[in-house]
Specification:
The complex is a heterodimer of chains A (252) and B (394).
Chain A: E1 4-15, E2 18-29, E3 33-37, H1 44-52, E4 58-66, E5 69-70, H2 76-81, E6 84-87, E7 94-98, H3 99-113, H4 121-127, H5 129-134, H6 140-143, E8 145-146, H7 152-166, E9 170-174, H8 182-195, E10 201-205, H9 209-214, E11 219-224, E12 227-232, H10 234-243, H11 246-251
Parallel strand pairs in A: 3-10, 3-11, 6-9, 9-10
Antiparallel strand pairs in A: 1-2, 1-4, 4-5, 7-8, 11-12
Chain B: H1 8-17, H2 21-35, H3 43-46, H4 50-60, H5 63-68, H6 71-85, E1 100-104, E2 123-124, E3 135-142, E4 146-155, E5 160-169, E6 173-182, E7 187-197, E8 201-209, E9 214-224, E10 227-235, E11 241-250, E12 255-264, E13 270-279, E14 284-293, E15 301-310, E16 316-325, E17 331-339, H7 343-350, H8 356-372, H9 378-393
Parallel strand pairs in B: 3-5, 4-6, 5-7, 6-8, 7-9, 8-10, 9-11, 10-12, 11-13, 12-14, 13-15, 14-16, 15-17
Antiparallel strand pairs in B: 1-2, 1-4
Helix pairs in contact in B: 1-2, 7-8, 8-9
Classes of the chains: A alpha/beta (252), B alpha/beta (394).
Bound molecules: adenosine-5'-triphosphate and magnesium ion.
Chain lengths: 252, 394
Amino acid sequence: MKNTLLHINDLHVAIDNTPILKGLTLRINAGEVHAIMGPNGSGKSTLSKVLAGHPAYTVTSGEIFLNGESLLNMDPDERALSGIFLAFQYPVEIPGVSNAGFLRMAVNAKRKHKGEDELDPIEFESWIKDKLTLVDMNPEFLDRYVNHGFSGGEKKRNEILQMAALSPQLAILDEIDSGLDIDALRDVARAVNTLRSPDRAFLIITHYQRLLTDIVPDIVHIMANGRLLTSGDKSLALEVEEKGYDWLLETV
Amino acid sequence: MIITQTDTETWFSQIEKHDHGATELSRFIAQLQTLGIPRKEQEMWRYAPLPALFEKITASRLGHVKEVATAEDMAMFQEIETNVFVPATVLAPSSFQRLTLFSASPKKEGPLGAASPTPPSGIQRAAPFEENHPSMKLNFNFIEGWQQHHVVVNAEAGANATLQLNLAATSGAGHVLVHLNLAHTAKVHIDIIGQALNAPVMVTIRAVQGNNGHLNVVSYVQDSAWFMLDLGNAINGTGSNMTLNALSLVRQNQYAAVVTNIRHTIGESTSSQLVKAVLYDTATTEYNGAVYVAHDAQKTDSTQSNPNLVLSDTARALSRPQLRIYADDVKCAHGATMGQLDPEPLFYLASRGFSHQECISIVLAGFAEEVLDQMSDPALQKSLLADAIQFLRA
Ligand SMILES: Nc1ncnc2c1ncn2[C@@H]1O[C@H](COP(=O)(O)OP(=O)(O)OP(=O)(O)O)[C@@H](O)[C@H]1O
Ligand SMILES: [Mg+2]
């Protein structure tokens, strides 16, 4: 019997009274890697933000459980502390806030939550070293402001660095591959593969099959118009890349 | 000539609008009248820009300078005056061989301030910048009436000087006029720190830059009844760069303004301005930023950014970035934002495990820190950041 980590049941979500997710059901077990593909505007980022608790979206019906506990009444920070991590499609720049300070505070918030000792700046500096190596990121990025003036690819690397530092139970990667060059793509895939473990799961949103040859998913879902249309193994991603989405939309 | 400066009439109407404006106003007017700045009686003054007024007054009292300054000082001073007010030519570095600072108090009354290098008298002649640590701290505490101080900094080729102006106005108003000459390759950094300014305070900077030099101005003002930083800089050389980083934290019926007039006369020079404000209650801030790029000033690169956090419905942030560009191969960008805290950074932080209150504190501290990080001294950065955070928490 596999251990269900995330359970989404018949989820309906609206923004400003416009329905975006229209009955989405998904179950992710610990240890699994799921991929979601789908046309632009189908609701992939909406799903990721709803899971992280973005206040602009209203859940009109349905349920979300993480480890059997309902997420819907939790604030975003409580969800993060319970193990959800979202790598943003568009990471936000926060001028004036040092990346190192931010990351250390986030790590410490999590450690405190788990009853572990907090790290002082000097301890943190050595603690973060192998995470930087894992994502092949220059330590100089820690001295800059959070994502401020980072290139598209550097922002994505910084998301993966945060994921590695916060070691979430469920990591949602929203188009982590967009804007990455070949080397960066390989580094990101390596980092994700290194972090795969029996008690952690990944939900990977992508438009490209390329990422999924490096991070091999257990299950691929196709999303359209606020629902999951169909699911399959990794070959579904190849099929979609070859034939597009139209044939799938027609059969439904 | 671009005139963007606030005139006396606008100034008065701004003061009048505030809640306790009437009392404040009568106090300010009394202060102004001792200076002979009229209100409506004399039409010619009515719409005169304030800096011009102040400069006139300073100039009319230059007699005092003559009393004490050496002939050499005066020659230099006049040369600076000429070049600053008619910034048309590139200054030849040979005409400024010394790195000297002096400050003049045209009115005999009132001390220059606690930590001033010399005791109060008609003219304050500070020790020159030391050769290896060319930094100078000037503390101005305006206690009564209206005081004016004139600071002249003459930075010779290769000089690297830091000037720190600490402003306090316990119960008097004040004007600090800084004339700056940057010869080729000279680098000058100015920190302006104003806290608890209970009466009107104005800082006017008139600068001229030669080739390959740097001018960095950083301003932090917190709790100002009425404050204006008026920065005019003529970049008359190529390869030169100017930055302005300013932060105003105001509440109640306070007012803080930044007025700039940056002239790129030659080209291949850069200027960047980041003027920020956080406003509570019925406070008002103003950014009036003019950038002028002369006809042949190709490859000029200029940016202006004016983000304001308006944290109350009754506060007002006025923004007027203005570009006058007469060259075709230039890069000029300007933008202003007004509003409450942006929800997206708040959500980004929350998704990393920070509570709502922590997210707000982090974003506000970052808003202040981006400017304070530019202050010359790390210890100063730290203490001002602590002050700013305390202000933003209250
Ligand atoms: N704040 C909002 N206001 C109005 N509409 C929104 C808002 N956010 C999302 N939408 C709409 O919801 C739909 C789903 O958007 P979403 O960003 O989830 O799509 P996506 O599948 O991630 O697309 P992409 O592949 O382009 O990233 C789109 O039609 C979008 O315009
Ligand atoms: Mg998306």
